[in-house]
Amino acid sequence: MASNGEHRGERHEEQQPGGRRSEEYGSGGRAQLHHRVPDLGALELLLAVARHGSLGAAAREVGITQPAASSRIRSMERQLGVALVDRSPRGSRLTDAGALVTDWARRIVEAAEAFDVGALALRGRRDSRLRVVASMTIAEYLLPGWLIALRAERPDTAVSLQAGNSAVVAERLLANEADMGFVEGLAVPDGLDGVVVAHDRLVIVAAPSHPWARRRGPLDPVELAATPLVLREHGSGTRQVLDAALSGHGGLAQPLLELASTTAVKAAAVSGAGPAVLSELAVAEELASRRLVAIPVEGARLRRDLRAVWPAGHRPTGPARDLLSLTRARPGG
Q1: pLDDT per residue over 145-190, tens digit each?
Q2: CB 212 within 8 A of CB 206
Q3: Quick one: CA dihedral 244, 247, 248, 249, positive or negative?
Q4: In angstroms, rounded to a whole number, what is the distance separating the alpha carbons of residues 63 and 74?
Q5: Measured at the alpha carbon of residue 239, what is the angle toward residues 222 and 187, in degrees to the nearest 5?
Q6: Helix (H) or strand (E) holding 322
Q7: Please, which residues bridge with residue 183 across strands?
Q8: Rounded distance, CA 289 to CA 287, Å?
Q9: How far is CA 111 from CA 115, 144, 145, in A?
Q10: Is the CB of residue 251 less than 8 Å from the CB of residue 243?
């Protein structure tokens, strides 16, 4: 006879507290997100209802029949446990709860669009006309918006995207493996030309349980330099800026951890492994939710320029030139 552990992958129908069936729970007992959040199609339909004030017009926009749209809205209301749309002969109006859910839905759909653009770029299709290589912070937090704007202006342009630290960006450009690059270091790497497209600031962050989170005053650069930190690897723009900022204060101590991605550094800091240094772009959500606390520092220059770069003497043309224009025209760019 099979043991209970051998049936973990099967569907179970026992009721959990609150009326949820156990099939909605993972092996750890936590409710799985995809059971609780409506799918993208339903969210796009809700946004269309908000725009048009009519279920029929919303159904036409998303390419389904009105009965199918009505059924999808009812299904979403059952899933969320709240009424989203008031229907009447004069049209369809969002309820107060529906208006709030629509605001959240808009953020999810925008994030999905950014995901789609990034994923398309990563495929590196053979007909690529623009090869982009970017350091990690820019690739994660700025490039998706820039690529969405580029697609709107040049929908037939295929883009391939590579990500790495600032040293890798320079190597790929100089080897003619990319047409346009983005770096976060102190200066334009040798052999490249470039222009500043955005500004950024490094922040010291720690978990709320860390003693620094309860400090009354700012950190001194000497104390920061002497403390083992969770850091990005040598060659990253973040590490270059931090090394330069603390070179006159004893230099960086041996890192507590040295990790190759922004996401890994952030996860280590959130887990309480130790304080970390990251771009403010990367930790905005964690600071807002208090999963991380920003630790002020006085006397250390932690601001940096974010640059578009290309091989010296080869000013960007075509799609690369258009992307450069977009980065300098959009907020944050």
Answers
A1: 899 999 888 888 888 888 888 889 999 999 999 999 999 878 899 9
A2: yes
A3: positive
A4: 18
A5: 110
A6: helix 318-329
A7: 307
A8: 5
A9: 6, 9, 10
A10: yes
